[in-house]
Amino acid sequence: MKISTKGRYALRLMLDLALRDSGEPIRLKDVAHRQGISEKYLEQIISVLNKAGYVRSVRGPQGGYVLARAAEEYTAGMILRLTEGSLAPVDCVEAGKGVCDRECGCATQILWKKIDEAISSVVDHVTLEDLVAWQMERTDDYVI
Prior knowledge:
Low-confidence stretches: none
Strand content: 5-15%
CATH class: Mainly Alpha
Distance between the termini: 23 Å
CATH architecture: Orthogonal Bundle
Number of helices: 6
Radius of gyration: 18 Å
CATH topology: Arc Repressor Mutant, subunit A
Mean pLDDT: 91
Structural class: mainly alpha
Strand order of the largest sheet: 1-2
Shape: elongated
């Protein structure tokens, strides 16, 4: 499994908003500049986050985006699944998929399930608040 730029940038965008969460809206242009990411690409990502209710847009000259909830209410898994879809390493262990016709005799499915469980265990227990704390431990200037 490899996380795409969309998923990685969505996490960076949400982390940037969380690091600067003062109640004041943050302009996407400023996030793009700090992160070195195209503003156009961030517009596509913020649209997905906004539609899902993860961020709230504020219109006007002092407008921008704010987190819709507290940082501790978001997990990395929530953000990644929203932007990436399933994080399962193979289709046969993906939730909602039909049972593989080889399931009964397939030892590798056990491996795929263990990998899927390990990934979920990490991303579903790391919150945006954890990422904020880790970032603050690493640097004083919040550049991520």
